Amino acid sequence: MAETATQARAPTFFQQVIDATPGYSNLEMCIQCGTCGGSCPSGPDMDHTPRTLFAMIRAVEVEPSMKERILRSNTFWYCVSCYHCMERCPQEVHITDIMYTLKRISVKENIYDSSKAPDFSKTFINWVENYGRAFELGLMGQHLALHNPFGAFKLAGMGIGMVTKGRMAFTPTPIKDVKGLKAILAKAKEIEETL
Amino acid sequence: MKYNYYPGCSLEKSASSYDVSTRAIAPALGIEFMEVEDWNCCGATEYIALNRMAAYALTARNLALASKNKESDQLIAPCSACYLNLRKCNQYLYDDEPLAKNVNIALAEGGLSYEAGSLRVRHLLDIVVNDVGYDAIQAKVTKPLTGLRIAPYYGCLIVRPDFGRGKHKSHETTFDNPEYPTSLDKLLKVLGAEVVDFPYKAHCCGGHMTQISDATGFEIIRRLIKGASDYRADMVVTLCPMCQMNLDAFQGAVNVHFKTNYHMPVLFFTQMIGLAFGMSAQEMGIGTELVDARPALAKIGVEVPPPEDEGTVKKPKKDDKSLPMPRLE
What we know:
Distance between the termini of chain A: 27 Å
Number of helices of chain A: 10
Order of helices and strands of chain B: EHHEHEHHEHEHEHHEHHEHH
Number of strands of chain B: 8
Structural class of chain A: mainly alpha
Order of helices and strands of chain A: HHHHHHHHHH
Oligomer: heterodimer
């Protein structure tokens, strides 16, 4: 499609990822060396190494179908947020932050292969948004019920151990100013929508 | 020395022994903690996966609350994940002006504001080794941990990412090496322990991975436990509640998964300081580990009395005013 001078060009997916990353991403600096994938503790279980994913992000411009392949990749959901890649990257690409950006785009556009990881984040945050603090028992209970009701026995020993050792609260503890917190978060979400 | 203190959600319950031991050793170290009034969750690794502005506003609310206290411009977090989130939020609000502006618009809804960079966010270990110092600690050791082989485990977020190596020269570098940290090694040696050169000391514990893909999560934990065991460590000592939980609470599941039989206790560095200062195991909250630390601690003559109600589920109080929840009985 020919582009006229007056037509504003929609930002590329590449630019979209850069813009949605807090601070500076340095994504444009990637030289495809692969240090990231080699440093990753969960790299062997990822569909694509971060390096491959960054090449795919650039490729969306010439091959639009690539975007869905990126968002369906398990790579960013398997990122354990250890920052080893980011520390070792010779180009100082903020790889871990870009992984979080891809998670957010995947959730927002509702494109993912497995809802397990997005649901875990949502369940966790649901407690935080309503009480101000994390609630492990509620999180684990809801998450297992949703995604692994028959696999719960695997973790039963751990759960019972945590409870008998007094390391699991039975009820969430709300902060004092839940109202103020909710107002802050509502405003923040409203701003995010406009960006 | 006075500091703003942000305990974080884990230290309230799942790692309460970390909080108990930290508060117990504070007077001996000459540290006074001022807990941040009405602090909230830092967002862990979850909120940033869903909403950028809300995640930064959530973390920034803590910075705003801490900065109200003019007695100290330093904020201490004992949990590495909280430390990272608070430090990163402080840094990125400073780097990214539009982000800081928008976060402050959101904070205003709750009557708060925060000037990026006005607080210095530090990890508890940094305070102990750099502000208190090895010499002052050594002078207080009355029961050295002689004969105990310890694998010091730092995990990730206390030393990474190192913003100081970036193009922004104003950025503060991490207090220890991002790949090969040594501050905890030195501290444990000062306490009298035999410290093993643990090759996985700055590797990841897997974070929330056990909940996303247990095969991946368990493998990450297995490598660490195997490493400590291969180096004939009596125990792993850590400084992060998430690392402690993954290595300790999931060790049983890891043993089942890989048909192994590891028995590697995992304690917090604050507990080891307390023991070396002559405080009791009870005062240090020892006994709440899932992997029994008693055989290892017996080596240094520390006895851990079994808790009276071991094996029974603690019932919530009758006058509990919190919301009703299903009870495990």
